[in-house]
Amino acid sequence: MDDESRRRLLAADLLATAGGGGLVASAFLHWVRSGPGNGLRGHDLVDTVVALGGALPGLSAARLTALWYLVPALGALAWLSVGLTGAHSLPSRAVAATAGATTGFAIVAFVQLAGFAALGPGALLAAAGGAALLASAFIYRT
Amino acid sequence: MTDSNRLRHKLDLMAVRGNRRGAAAVLQSAKDQVPAARSANGAGIMPPDGEGDRPDELVVEIQSATPRRRHAAWSILAAAGAAALAGVGALAITALVGDGGASSPEAAVQRLADAVSAEDPLAAAGALAPGEVRTLSRTLDAAGHRAADLDLVATAGAPLAGVDLDVRDLALATEDLAPGYAKVVVLDGSLTAETNAAEMSDLLRRAGVHDSAASVEAAELRQRDIQPFLMAVESGDGWYVSVAYTALEYLRVLNDLPAPDYGSGLAALSSLGASSPEDAARQMVSGVADSDWDAVFSLIPPGEIALYDYREALGELLADSDAGATVDALDATAEIDGDTAVVEVRASGSFESVRDDGYGPTHWDLSDGCLREYYPGYTETGVAIGSDSGAVSYPTQATNAFCISPAYAGSPLLMFIGGTGTPSEDPERGVELTAVRIGDRWFLSPVSMALEAVDAWVGGFDLRSLYSMLGLGREIPPETGLTLGESYRGEVASRWTTYTYSFDGNAGQEVVGRLTELTGADEPREGTLPGAFTSAELYAPDGSPVYDSYMVLAGSPVALPEDGTYTLVVNAYFAGPYELTLWDADEAPGDATGGATATGGVATSVPAVPTTFPNAPDG
């Protein structure tokens, strides 16, 4: 393997690790920065923002809650996959793609319900983590 | 030449050598052509250049494109991922199954403090005992949306924008009172509040809200050596701050009353309450009339307001309070929907006591959403409210009322207390009470009733109400333009509504007016005084208030300061049809300018919040 390939491989692993860590850590930070819900997490947070922002078509509070918990869960799964098979492997890329999409959906939902300006550090970290995971899936090609 | 280029070169040579074959055939042929000679260790060797039969034979070295696995750190990462996955799963399950309360009484108070600091009303409601707040979160949410609809706040998601609250340096200590009940003493800490008008709505800034700041230290809240505290209760899924227990405990300690029997209400739940919602309502009315406070307390859900736990203390406090009422008629009908019911109660009776001035007994009834007290044939001379002097006589039946009713939507207060001559608009309608079923017993729920009243009040709140409350009545679009000397007839939609009217006036001109309630037949309503249930303000063309104009509809002419179009703001405390007339004082009829009315009294304006009986010793 040439040096460039090794560097890309290492970068993919590190990006995936950081991305997964970001998604996991987002569960411990506030997703709403100000106003109602800014002190809440999890289903309390979702219940609050849904109560304020109304319903999104096809996305009930229960589904949004599940989506919110999927974000850190996929981050943890990314760690597991990268640790076992590397960021370049098919399973890791699948996890990265799923995590990126899920995080994107969750953030879009929160923007719709609470407003973009109200997004807190949890949402921003999740966004960064999702982007890093997606990047890790593409940075190394066999 | 790099490795990759070398490889490509070899492959190019192979591609043009010999017959076209598939890759597998090429590789197999290459293997077959490797010389039989081996080194001592058995490894295959390449023939030296120039030697052997086929000097141009090539062996393609096949390597895996992916390096083999890896440093132990990646195994650790995999293990961390597995652990994190399990943790997230446990977190999700725990949160969804429900551990809504805090882990300790102190944590519950801290959670409330954090919500206050975050200006998060919904999180604050979540820190309170669920049984006491019921649907408070929904009420807060509705209020936030309504405020946003009326441009009182910018967004429903930030109802306290421009208000910055901060609870700092809390030092707490817990005193366990009974299993599941604790007193959390605030040893130290501070609460600061700041308003930033620039972050508030334009409406609030026009109403005069400005930057301000205030703070209070825990030490300042000490009363009679009693450290400030909050009560916490354990609700099975964690600890919550209890507003009801906090209020009752403050009442007890400040009055040196006996300790409560914590949890006795919940323990005796199956024997408290009533067998039906109608019975609960009847027992409540009878209990209050007879001053049977234990019976009254037993009809309130113990998990909502723990009056039953504090029955000994409250009984001692109320020992000298005897309603002295009789119940002459009592009727209750309920509409049940699952575990809740709306009970309409109609009742009437009398108060046996006689006042110090010798007047009594009086009558009472529950009608049209209010408890009303009547003074039949009440006439007395004395100083009228709002006037300097003079003999007055009052309608034949004065009324005092205590109401919590959505009928007062838009009023500055949710309830209406006191007042003279507030007859019931619908005497056949009773008072609606909310009952809840717990187990197989029915209780009356004051929290539900209060929240329903607040919900109805919020729902009925409109711009007119808001502008009136904020003192911006002059900005309400006029009902009509008035012509001096010509009467205007209109209708007040609901009590405590503000209307505006415009008219043209000249500098130095004096104006006076009269507003008369009418019956459905357009006749003056008997028993009411012109202008008795209104207050008025005049605003000059430049928007400034005209000095001392509040009596303009009560017989006191007001001099206009300049030429132009004036705004008359009228706050009507009655509902129904009316007739309004403004005159040039020189052309007004005699009874419109401070003279006696046909009933022999002086037309007066009732203060904005009438709270006293007419001719009461302090009135």
Task: Describe the protein's architecture and organization.
The complex is a heterodimer of chains A (142) and B (619). With 142 residues, chain A is an all-alpha fold. Chain A has one domain. Helix content of chain A is 74%, strand content 0%. Chain A is built from five helices and no strands. Chain A has helices at 3-26, 42-53, 61-85, 90-114, 121-139. The longest helix of chain A has 25 residues, at 61-85. Chain A is elongated and about 50 Å long. The model of chain A has no long low-confidence stretch (mean pLDDT 81). Chain B has four domains: 1-63, no CATH class; 105-254, Nuclear Transport Factor 2, Chain: A, CATH 3.10.450; 270-453, no CATH class; 465-592, Jelly Rolls, CATH 2.60.120. Chain B is built from 15 helices and 21 strands.
Question: Which tags fit this structure?
Answer:
heterodimer; A: 142 residues; mainly alpha; B: 619 residues; alpha+beta; Nuclear Transport Factor 2, Chain: A; five-stranded antiparallel β-sheet; 15 helices; 21 strands; 26% strand; extended; disordered C terminus
**Number of helices, where a helix is a run of at least 4 consecutive DSSP H or I residues of chain A:** 5
Q: Could you estimate the helical fraction of the residues of chain B in percent?
A: 25-40%
Order of H and E elements of chain A:
HHHHH
Question: What percent strand of chain A?
Answer: under 5%
Provide the low-confidence segments of chain B as ranges: 37-53, 378-396, 417-421, 595-619
Counted beta strands of chain B: 21
Over all CA atoms, what is the radius of gyration of chain B? 40 Å
Spatial shape of chain A: elongated
Helix content of chain A: over 70%
